[in-house]
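User: My advisor asked me to double-check a structure prediction for AraC-type DNA-binding protein before group meeting. I don't want to rely on an old file, so could you generate it fresh from this sequence?
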Amino acid sequence: MVSEVKAWRPAVGGVAEAFHARFTDHAYPMHVHDTWTLLLIDEGAVRYDLDRHEHGALRSLVTLLPPQVPHDGQSATPHGFRKRVLYLDGTLLDDALIGRAVDGPEIADAALRGQVHLLHESLVRPGDELEAESRVELVADRLRRHLRRRDPVPEPVRDRRLAHAMRDLLDRRIGPGVSLREAAAELHAHPAHLVRAFGSEFGIAPHQYLVTRRVDRARRLLLAGRPVHAVAAATGFYDQSHLTRHFKRVVGTTPARYAGSNGRPTVL
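Assistant: Sure, here is a fresh prediction for AraC-type DNA-binding protein from the sequence you gave:
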């Protein structure tokens, strides 16, 4: 019996599919994927066989199953399980790492689990693709470091030239925006290095910088008398609710109340 299923293909490079589900008595037969399976368990636990060895996916772990390696799966408790899955393609993790993942599919890294959780949160919000792209590149970089048995926490990255070039690009593309992979190709940098260099230089992620620039532009248009829905379209937000969510987080009030104050003090 299935109590919840949600599947979609995010508009984010490297992510072939996102899948959220809660199962009570479903058991997966032995099967393979042509993508990497990045799994979080939010309730319960899953017992599975991978390459003829028994494993367990637990809430405290990040589970990474490699492509083309048979595995199955079923609840380890009578109450079922709830999971979130991302299917990642070979542009993020290459086949040379498959053997390492077979040897150790369970990753005990609380920081990585938190990063994957935030990635899922960004994927369900239309209009936040740059944030999702940034998060998926950092998650993939941390996974690669785990599979190569290196310290998963990288040293601070300083690349002032690259960071300032990225800021200039974002300033030119406030309205239409720019994808992380497009920016990386234009600036001849790896996407994860680009995100880290920007954050190290300016103390803010590229997607956060772009949002604050859009909010600043929205403030001016609102005070000029433009309606909220038109301001959302003019400043690169997905829709009015997307503008409202970010505007309230940055400014402390909604766009409508901000515009309606008309120079008078208002209770926020």
